[in-house]
Amino acid sequence: MAADPPAPVRLLVWLLAVTAAATVVVDLLNWRYAAEQDFAMAVRSGWALLRAVGFLILIRQVRRGRAGARPFGLILAVTTVFALGRLVVPRSGVPLLPQVAGFSLLVGLCLAVVWLLYRSPVVGAHLVRHPARLVFDGARPAWREAPPRRPPVAAGLLIARVAAFTYTPLMLVPALVSIGVLVDGRLAAVPLVVGWIAAALVTSYLVLLVSFFMLRGRRWARGLLLVISVGVLAVDLPLCWWLLGVDGLVRDGAPLVVAVLLAAYGVWRAARAARADRVGDTTRSRPGR
Fold first, then answer.
1. Rounded (5°) CA angle 245-248-250
2. Contacts (Cβ under 8 Å, ≥6 apart) of 36
3. Is 227 helix (H, G, I), strand (E, B) or coil?
4. Largest Cα–Cα distance of the chain, in whole Å?
5. For the packed helices 190-214 and 219-248, what is the interaxial angle rounded to 10 degrees?
6. Which of 1, 118, 235, 244 is the most exposed place for a label (fewest CB within 10 A)?
7. CB contact burial 20-31 (16+ within 10 A = b; e otherwise)
8. Distance between alpha carbon 201 and the CA centroid of its chain, in Å?
9. What's the pLDDT tens digit per position in 251-287?
10. How many CB atoms lie within 10 A of CB 170?
């Protein structure tokens, strides 16, 4: 029988379960007190509700000790705050007390989750396992945990990869919201909306391809990811402003900006770690050292 996980890991699992429940409660509160329960609100609320599923997946990753739980938890916590935060603030006036109280509780839970993931040495020592895969022990195949054949991946690259994978859904949400613009009679915007959705789908394939090479240490892939990130902002932000107005630019553009900044931070952190490794190798190779 497997040993029980350490107390900080059990606390993290409990916090994730509470955060998943709080995500649903806050989303329902926002819907209950929303001034306009329209199509745009329904799309944004549905996207926010999916965060609860994300926290349940993260619980599974933590219980299995997966190394990828850290960057996934960081991106999930940050984007959850933005996904629900944009629903709290009404188009005019101030949010109601139940909305503010629920959102404040959710922010505190997300901060606690991130703190445990990145500041608890016990949790860090637990999140070291790799997914199981098919390996051959002699001539016999077996399905068990095995470290990847590639060199260990820097934490910054994992953060950049997970952040970049959020580009497509963060683009699709405002693109779907903009369908309401077409319903209102602005049929001239049809090509833009279709192009917006197509750009989001193409971005998912580009990110998948670039991240494949990025995790294998290709320096050009890190630079290409930054180029893709700038291109995503160049497409998404003007369309948010033109089709959804300033309100849409703030509600739907800001989360994408944060995701891009996290990806850029991950690339910068990985580059700094790579430079430090090269300096260390040079120092160790000098004669007399």
1. 110
2. 91
3. helix
4. 77
5. 150
6. 1
7. bebbeebbebbb
8. 17
9. 889 889 999 999 999 999 888 877 776 665 556 555 5
10. 26
